[in-house]
Amino acid sequence: MARRPGLSARMKLTLSYAGFLALAGALLMAVVWLYLLRYVPDKEKGLLGISPNRYLLVRIFFPRAAAAMGCLLVLGLVGGWLLAGRMLAPLTRITDAARTAGTGSLSHRIHMAGRQDEFRELADTFDAMLEQLESHVAEQQRFAANASHELRTPLAVTQTLLDVARRDPTRDRDEVLARLQSVNTRAIDLTEALLLLSRSDRGHVTRERVDLSLVAEEAVETLLPLAEQRGTILDVTGSPTRTDGSPELLLRMMTNLVQNAVVHNLPTGGTVTVHTAQDGDTSVLTVENTGRPIAPDLLPTLTEPFQRGAERVRTGEHPGVGLGLAIVHSVVRAHGGTLDLTARPSGGLLVTVRLPSRPGT
């Protein structure tokens, strides 16, 4: 944005220093005149009959005072220019860093040394902002690359099926349509998951009064056929647990957690326990499932997009889209809560969600 030309901050500070110094000198001269010279008798013999008198003192004092004022003004300008430059040097470094960041380079840091003053605090805040921006941009770039890769796969499969059907007219039409429908359904699920993840990441949450115990019961009822198909027992316990949030997003969070617990479970005889409780000002939700032991170094990656946890065990054919726990993490973060993943010693995973509660009436 173009701005009108004007004095720089350094010049303004310099003129301010010089002006204050000249004003102080003028006030000192005024004090000398008001409280000293004006009381000197203007007679031949001066004060107590001794020369000099007021006339001589004025003639001697004011030329020297004017010269001193000129020296003060020059000293104020030169010293003010040097002092302003020294004071504004940290601001120049911050400006250079901001200009570098404006070109797209977010790896630059100021790392300002010295005592903790206002400029040091501003520089440290700016460094922290650059670090967060760099991390966010890197995460978005990685997410975009992974999303493009994941979306390309069903499109490539669809193109292959169409090419095969075109080259082989005798191929079973129903088989081709069934496979196309399966691939298209996966692409739709992936797209909806990406949209939901993007929405929750933006933090646009319409808050209503929600009872997590009812949300848990609805999610379990929806996934009961899937659990029965895999021989997994679903158990819901707890008491009414209220919070403020989006019913749609919280239901999707609950559904993803329960579905994840069912899919990554023992081949047969597995269990999934969903528990809700009120802990003071916090609403606590836990989802615990059986399964094989999980490596500790695998836990931090489970909430990253498109990390399907290759070492985890799935029962049946359920490829997923790799966004289940990533969506859960995003929804929890959008509601101001925390998500903890703990590997059970006997195998399986314990997921704990803590959300700000809303006391019931």
Kindly summarize this structure in a few lines:
With 361 residues, the chain is α+β, with helices and mostly antiparallel strands. The chain is built from 7 helices and 7 strands.
Description:
The protein has a 5-stranded mixed beta sheet, covered by helices on one side. Strands 1-3 form a two-stranded antiparallel sheet. It is an alpha+beta fold and 361 residues long. Helix 3 (118-167) packs antiparallel against helix 4 (173-201) and helix 6 runs antiparallel to helix 7. The protein is elongated. A hairpin with a 2-residue loop joins strand 4 (271-279) and strand 5 (282-289). It has helices at 9-35, 54-102, 118-167, 173-201, 212-229, 247-263, 324-334, and strands at 208-211, 233-238, 242-245, 271-279, 282-289, 338-343, 349-356.
Order of helices and strands: HHHHEHEEHEEHEE
Task: Give the DSSP E fraction (strand runs of 2 or more residues).
Answer: 5-15%
Number of strands: 7
Helix content: 55-70%
Low-pLDDT residue intervals, each spanning 5 or more residues: 310-319
Number of helices: 7
Spatial sequence of strands, sheet with the most strands: 2-4-5-7-6
- How can the largest sheet be summarized? 5 strands, mixed
Distance, first to last CA = 53 Å
Question: What integer value in Å does the Rg equal?
Answer: 38 Å
What would you call the structural class? alpha+beta
The general outline is elongated
